[in-house]
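pls read this protein.

:::
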Amino acid sequence: MIEVAAAVLQRPDGSFLLAQRPAGKVYAGYWEFPGGKAEPGEPAAAALSRELHEELGIEVETAYRWITRVFTYPHGTVRLNFFRVTGWRGEPHAKENQAISWQSPGAPTVSPMLPANAPVLASLALPAEYAITDAARWGTAAMLASATTRSAARCALAAR
């Protein structure tokens, strides 16, 4: 199985970066999330940082594991370790003769896309958080009040 680290570089406005596979590579011309193969024994997070530096000239500052998918292409089976990257140093620019494009969630304008990316693209349109409550036991008003208080506290911490 081929281990791959893939980045969902996401700006505060929700837009995300896609890269077009260059000529000479399998699926040349297809669009994908930036990243690449992990070296033998290389942790996925380290591969992510290395690949983004090599491909886009950026240094990852904030990233977290998000989705892992196994997908079988005609040339091999890959385990795609997707990371959401929300902080980086430098402006992404194409260092390997590939086109890059910032896209809006729910409305990508580039094609064709690599087949393994469809569920990831769909997930970008979902909320980042979901609330699971015990409203049946405690009451809807009490649960909403509690969620509002926690949300306000998180916003206050984030503003510091």
Q: What stands out?
A: DSSP finds four helices and seven strands in the chain. The CA atoms of residues 21 and 114 lie 10 Å apart.
